[in-house]
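Rotation project, supervised by the postdoc (A.L.). Task for the rotation student: set up a whole-complex structure prediction and record inputs and outputs verbatim in this book. Inputs entered:
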Amino acid sequence: MDTKSIVYIALFAALTAALGLIPPISFAGIALPPITAQSLGVMLAGAIAGTRRGGLALLLFIALVAIGLPLLSGGRGGFGVFAGASGGFLIAWPISAAVIGWLVSQSGTNPLRLAISIAIGGILVMYAIGIPWMSVVADLPLSKAVMIMLAYVPGDIVKVVIATIVARGIQRAYPAL
Amino acid sequence: MLDLYRPGASFLHRLPPGPKVLVMMAAGTLLFLFESLPLATAALLITLALYRLAGLSFSLAAAQLRPLALIFAIFFALQYWLSGPVIAGFVVIRLAALILLASLVTLTTRASDMIDMITRALSILRPLGVNPAKVGLAISLALRFIPVLGQITTEVREAQKTRGLERSVIATALPVAIRTLKMANDISDAIDARGYDPRT
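Outputs recorded:
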């Protein structure tokens, strides 16, 4: 692997960690866990760095979390977060980023196709892995887990819009990335 | 280095990270294979006893669970409603045991020891084209980039404030992204210019 790829992988892993420093938004008071900006890192890694670099960046990020660095929003880290209810979403991050990278490479520069690619990888793929995990860990029927996660869809759509605008801006600023 | 490690001299601290991780994975698998309340409760009590053996306080153990208190409450309420108090108690106790055990590994192992273990373990993957030295470089770079990104963001925000754009997410995010990508390209050129090419 060339040096540029290694640096990009490190950069997008660090970006996801830095996004964890943004204060989370509590949208339902104390009823549900807050929305964090970190999955925006997943979308940007896939859309800007591409399939391989984006996927490996998030793999590096979750490896750093697993070895005990408090890089998740709220200063969480360690193996415990994988055993928890949202562990499946973490596992899904590298896959999500890789899927986004591949779809974006197919979609060209059309902003709408870019947004749809990011939404498929960043919402559909992530939920497809995260929700069954949650339902196993918490012994919940799938339908109930899906209902909990519906509360997070509006926040994720906002992130897709931001990721699309930034990715499109990068495509213009750095056409041959 | 930013780390969740709590220094100590117990046998859990002295144990190398490999065996600890393996025991933790085995325990987690067992708890999901055999779904029984007594087993989950025993696992929780043994884990708490291990915290004592490692010289860690119970309040530290409670602190590991506190960020998840809301999720626990939601699961307990849902399970109570769906399948009664026994199952609800079982699910919450099993989750608590797993999280406490995993946190125990993290609390008694230095992040640097864990990085060494990962780098060593990665040499098995060398036939697949994985170069442990390059993975080590990526880890070090990522840890260094985190504060740098924070600094760049602060600079861009200050610049946009003078233009009255401090409330716009895009006006900050886009210049930050472009500046960091430019920085990444410069760093990669600098590394290549020094002839970096690890074969080990």
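Student's summary: Chain B has two domains: 11-120, 131-193.
Supervisor addendum: Chain B touches chain A through 69 residues (CB under 8 Å).
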